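Milestone 3.1: sequence recovery, worked example.
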């Protein structure tokens, strides 16, 4: 932790990169943790793609209404709030996230690049008419045009939002410190950003309960502590020493 503290204090452009492990301490499951990841219970190839939306529509809609109802049960934890505070004080410059729960946004972070979209918006897959989140929860799942209403998240096989992707690429290239919080780094192209940062001279930190294929490139790897406790410990240190 001492090295991480020093890196954070010395850095001028720290970028945070989060995955589902950032939200498990809020109560949400991640995707690939042994025995409790979402993909242990549901098969993403049957649910999380456009083919499922078009040809397995009822199961697709039930799955995403289930995920939205789960997200609605929980909220950002202290770690999300600390990151939002650090952005306000300039300690970090932005967050690149794979998460669709919008918890960084809800915690008050502003420079948040949601690579995989979020459950904040819903639209018809056919005509792109926008719909309210509550209408989707209340059961409205078919558009007036007959198309399927879907969340504004990126499904497997779809392109990432290009503007967000380009912005994340710029931020990762500018970073002199790049901190991964709670991602297996197993999904592309999101998993390219730690190397984009590293190749542009950044120090790379990976805080994740399990090892990742990118640990060999990291300057610091922390596996023995949960993300929330790492962020709280760092924040307490900064509060009492700066
Ligand atoms: N502290 C530290 N690490 C944690 C914690 C925690 N409290 N909770 C979980 N983790 C770690 C897990 O060990 C796991 O390695 O977070 C990692 C989460 O990895 P994944 O479940 O694979 O989630 P993620 O990397 O975000 O998945 C990327 O895959 O299915 C798609 O679109 C989906 O955005 C998602 C993408």
């Amino acid at each position: 932790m001492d090295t991480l503290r020093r890196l954070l204090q010395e850095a001028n452009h720290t970028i945070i990169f989060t995955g589902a492990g950032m939200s498990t301490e809020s109560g949400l499951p991640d995707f690939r943790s042994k025995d409790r990841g979402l993909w242990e219970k549901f098969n993403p190839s049957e649910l999380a793609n456009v083919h499922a939306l078009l040809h397995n529509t009822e199961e697709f809609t039930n799955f995403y209404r289930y995920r939205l109802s789960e997200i609605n049960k929980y909220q950002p934890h202290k770690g999300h709030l600390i990151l939002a505070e650090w952005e306000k004080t300039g300690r970090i410059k932005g967050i690149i996230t794979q998460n669709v729960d919008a918890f960084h946004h809800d915690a008050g972070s502003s420079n948040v690049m949601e690579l995989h979209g979020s459950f904040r918006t819903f639209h018809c897959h056919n005509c792109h008419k926008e719909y309210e989140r509550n209408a989707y929860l209340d059961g409205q799942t078919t558009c007036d045009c007959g198309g399927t209403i879907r969340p504004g998240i990126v499904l497997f096989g779809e392109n990432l939002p290009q503007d967000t992707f380009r912005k994340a690429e710029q931020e990762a290239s500018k970073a002199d410190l790049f901190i991964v919080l709670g991602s297996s780094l197993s999904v592309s192209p999101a998993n390219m950003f730690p190397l984009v940062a590293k190749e542009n001279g950044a120090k790379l930190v990976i805080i994740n309960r399990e090892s990742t294929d990118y640990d060999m490139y990291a300057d610091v790897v922390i596996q023995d502590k949960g993300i929330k406790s790492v962020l709280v410990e760092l924040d307490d240190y900064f509060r009492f020493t700066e």
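The two ends are 17 Å apart (CA to CA). DSSP finds eleven helices and nine strands in the chain.
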